[in-house]
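Help! Submission page says 'invalid entity' but I think these are all valid:
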Amino acid sequence: MEQKSHIEAKKLNVYYGNNHVLKNINLQIPDKKITAIIGPSGCGKTTLLKSFNRMIDIFDEVKVTGEVLFDNENIYKKNIELTHVRKKMGLLLQRPFPLPMSIFDNVAYGPKIHGLKSKKKIRELVEFYLKETSLWNEVKDKLQAPATSLSIGQQQRLCLARGLAVEPEVILGDEPTSALDPIATRKIEEKFHQLKKDYTIVIVTHILRQAKRLADYVIFMYLGELIEAGPADKIFNEPEKELTKEYIKGLIS
Amino acid sequence: MIKRKIEEIVFKILMYSAFITVLISFFIILFTILIKGIPSLNLKMITQTPKGGYYLGKEGGILNAITGSLILACSSTFLSMMISFPIAVFLNVYNKKKSRYVQVIRFSFDVLTGVPSIVYGALGLIVMYFFNLRASLLGGTIAVTLLILPLMCRGIDEVLQMTPKSLLESSYALGSTSLETSFKILLRQCYPGIITTILISFGRGIGDAASVLFTAGFSDNMPGNFLRPAATLPLAIFFQLTSPIKEVQSRAYAAAIILTMIILFISIMSRVISLRFEKYKIK
Ligand SMILES: Nc1ncnc2c1ncn2[C@@H]1O[C@H](COP(=O)(O)OP(=O)(O)OP(=O)(O)O)[C@@H](O)[C@H]1O
Ligand SMILES: [Mg+2]
């Protein structure tokens, strides 16, 4: 891969207690592309994704060895400023989790904690990102309503807006459409297509068709190991490994 | 099929009878104090302090005890809130769930919750001796704070534990620090539950007699100074109830009505407040 990349894993191992979940992962995520992580359930996709912004730290008894380089800096080295690492990578969870506050405050929260004070600027930002996620027209008259009053699909777009508002460089999505109906899914996917101009996007999905629709680059995982990674065309059409072939054909799931 | 129907019916009956038992007990208590207390209830009770010989049936009121109890309960609720919220946050945000340490702390709070209040009174007394304090409003506040602290810690802790982990995750993912997550997210999410806990503790604090018996003392004057003894409602009720004079006993029930009304008022207020925040809560 010739492209410049700001996320790179080197000999990454993750254990939950004695459970060796990620085994010696080496990979590079291409910039300004959509990368899809695919693989059967329990193979470590979520763990891999969350190790990129050190979100796995909050689980009990996690042990990590190896490196994850972000802009050539190992984010697992001591004394790293975790809030900065996480600010640079917006994480979108499987099920949308709005914050317990109004729609407006949900989007404003990130910029505020990162030091934005001007009320006017905050208002502009909120409007901008709600438009960016095509939510503005649906919520502009009820910005002070609780975020829980939105539908699940709207909540997921709100979470996307909230994540974008802290101005990350990377978007990490953990099955971001799995709680959504097909129309809402389509909307999020379209958004991703537009967003890849400006952001590096990594999504986890177990829907092969979604991976085919979205991905430029594909990582195939199996039982905690990285089996094959490469451009989407190649992985889907002429995979090198036997396991990948079987998975693509739907023989293992 | 029949067996399952019967099971269903038996359990329904059990649930209804439990519910009715609680309801009936509540009304019996309420009716007893109302019937016995209403004849003695008058405006003087809540506008006057005891004149000489009030506890022998002479003129006056218990404004001093009402004020004393309110000040005491409010200050100890406030104090113990300032202590228990950080403790609960520490247990939930700054420590891993399964940590031995956290479990030991939780267990000790559970034990402390069951300790009888007279023991907290005695403990308060020791603290007071240490600081060379006499029986005073401050002493009572210390004892009641000690009394409700474990209750409040465990209550808030329990509420915080119910927050979905993904909510914390969402907050961290935006680059929040643990402190921001605690105060801006967790506190908001748990507002209704925390208010309920505070209310329960307040009720326990204002209604407890044994812990203030030695520590707060008693006085016929309005409480004005934290270092002087102050009257409290539970003790006023206790002293009047143990009097041989019928009239004075009846006044004890009137005082109980006032105490109950205060608790009822606080409950309703906190319900109203917490309902306003409930709508933001993530389920
Ligand atoms: N918090 C945790 N504590 C302990 N073990 C965990 C934890 N989270 C995941 N695991 C284990 O790690 C392995 C990988 O989990 P992970 O969630 O990364 O899989 P996944 O590929 O995302 O699966 P799915 O497609 O079902 O979401 C599983 O075997 C799981 O049991
Ligand atoms: Mg997963």
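Support: the input was valid. A stray whitespace character was the problem, and the output above is from the cleaned input. The mean pLDDT of chain B is 90.
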